[in-house]
From TrEMBL:
<feature type="active site">
    <location>
        <position position="269"/>
    </location>
</feature>
<protein>
    <recommendedName>
        <fullName>aldehyde dehydrogenase (NAD(+))</fullName>
        <ecNumber>1.2.1.3</ecNumber>
    </recommendedName>
</protein>
<dbReference type="InterPro" id="IPR029510">
    <property type="entry name" value="Ald_DH_CS_GLU"/>
</dbReference>
<dbReference type="InterPro" id="IPR015590">
    <property type="entry name" value="Aldehyde_DH_dom"/>
</dbReference>
<dbReference type="InterPro" id="IPR016162">
    <property type="entry name" value="Ald_DH_N"/>
</dbReference>
<dbReference type="InterPro" id="IPR016163">
    <property type="entry name" value="Ald_DH_C"/>
</dbReference>
<feature type="domain" description="Aldehyde dehydrogenase">
    <location>
        <begin position="37"/>
        <end position="498"/>
    </location>
</feature>
<dbReference type="InterPro" id="IPR044638">
    <property type="entry name" value="ALDH7A1-like"/>
</dbReference>
<dbReference type="Pfam" id="PF00171">
    <property type="entry name" value="Aldedh"/>
</dbReference>
<keyword id="KW-0520">NAD</keyword>
<comment type="similarity">
    <text>Belongs to the aldehyde dehydrogenase family.</text>
</comment>
<dbReference type="InterPro" id="IPR016161">
    <property type="entry name" value="Ald_DH/histidinol_DH"/>
</dbReference>
<keyword id="KW-0560">Oxidoreductase</keyword>
<comment type="subunit">
    <text>Homotetramer.</text>
</comment>
Amino acid sequence: MDAIATDFGIKEALQQLGVKDINEGTSTGVNNFSNGDVIESYSPVDGKLIAKVKATTKDDYEKVMQAATSAFKTWRVMPAPQRGEIVRQFGDKLREKKEALGKLVSYEMGKSYQEGLGEVQEMIDICDFAVGLSRQLHGLTMHSERPGHRMYEQYHPLGVVGIISAFNFPVAVWSWNTALAWICGDVCVWKPSEKAPICGVACQNIAAEVFKANNLPEGISCLINGDYRVGEMMTKDTRVPLVSATGSTRMGKIVAQEVAGRLGKSLLELGGNNAIIVTPDADIKMTVIGAVFGAVGTAGQRCTSTRRLIIHDSIYDKVKDAVVDAYKQLRIGNPLDENNHVGPLIDTDAVKMYQNALTQVVEEGGNIVVEGGVLSGEGYESGCYVKPAIAEARNDMKIVQHETFAPVLYLLKYSGDVENAIEMQNGVAQGLSSAIMTNNLREAERFLSHAGSDCGIANVNIGTSGAEIGGAFGGEKETGGGRESGSDAWKVYMRRQTNTINYTTELPLAQGIKFDL
Ligand code: NAD
């Protein structure tokens, strides 16, 4: 552990989380059997090696699946409220480890420590939600058309839920899935992003501790590690009835076809291209806060990051000046230092994508109003720190249509009615998050109406970024159509069964069909 940063208590955090120099990341928690290649995880904060994990081989995967399928037999028959009690204990463990895990999230992924803590808080919140839900996995009852018959529906566990997650929410997305899947009676096999595998090890250690303390099989929570090839082991595996995949639209299209090809279910949480509409009736101060946090928070690497500001021409200059002014106050640097607003991008490949986007927007006729650039020198040695940039652009530009996962904000102008702005907001392939800033009730309601935003999330006087766990989270179109977290998202983790019970001595057939013998 000598190589890692000693500042900001990272070393202590790793110790608290049971992270070792080399982690048998394939394990289901306590098995150590991987012979796979070693994956090294470097921090984008200072470029130092955090720790290593072993990638999952085919043989390892088989062992994991055996542990998972066998654990399912125990777990599925445990009453749901008792499963909820285990999730409650898991939530309590997260409370204990919140600072350590939040720090690791910040150090391995690059988001601010505050956002790292926020991510762990989301995990705690979804556990609380799941505990309550464990007593509410209800189905409907309906009246049978036949006398002396009772009909109802119930929900049963699915089996092994495969979770594939992205680098930018290295712990919360897993918990959104697991907390619900666990109370539903499923067991989970998780492949975290190969760009943030140590977060996966830390979470797995916490979960394993809880299951062990309750004498429950370790296979209820399994971890596999590696790149897309390890993800494919699950997408191709008929023993995995549901694959929940979070990441790029490119990945989602491959996963969707693979899983559908074997008639499995997939829950897809993919890329966004989120816009805030700013109407003449907007509160400018609120707009600036929402837009700037949305565009530069997590260095523009949230699926819900604000990428487009669609501003009415009558207030365009005023809003532009206010946002540009706010950008001048941004401090870029080590995300563990709470004085900084913007941390690094995940790696130098992401930096290249950011640079390409800025070149392309100019080539397509855009106008840079806040200059970007890569930072170098003391504190920026990792080569991953960039300046948030703003460009005036048009909605039909190729680069504007594309999700660039970096802090690049496009200013777009609309004129006339709010319908014109809504058309621009909807005029992209993705459909995750959207917002309108207005004090005009009619505009707000039109934005929320059937003819309004086509996104999974539509906010009024709130930015696009971030969401509460109580609502169903996800988006339409190329965002994949999946919903996870709150509301009735739990239903995707269960199979529905309709039951009809005859308590008479006759056997009447449905639809009045006669079959006399
Ligand atoms: P990515 O698509 O590169 O990788 C995501 C995960 O998919 C990784 O674990 C990766 O190993 C795996 N993967 C890639 N190809 C695969 C394949 N063919 N089969 C199986 N697994 C495969 O995405 P990323 O760069 O880690 O994350 C950024 C993207 O994720 C952005 O597009 C962002 O908008 C999106 N995202 C969406 C949400 C959401 O809820 N909608 C949340 C977070 C991130």
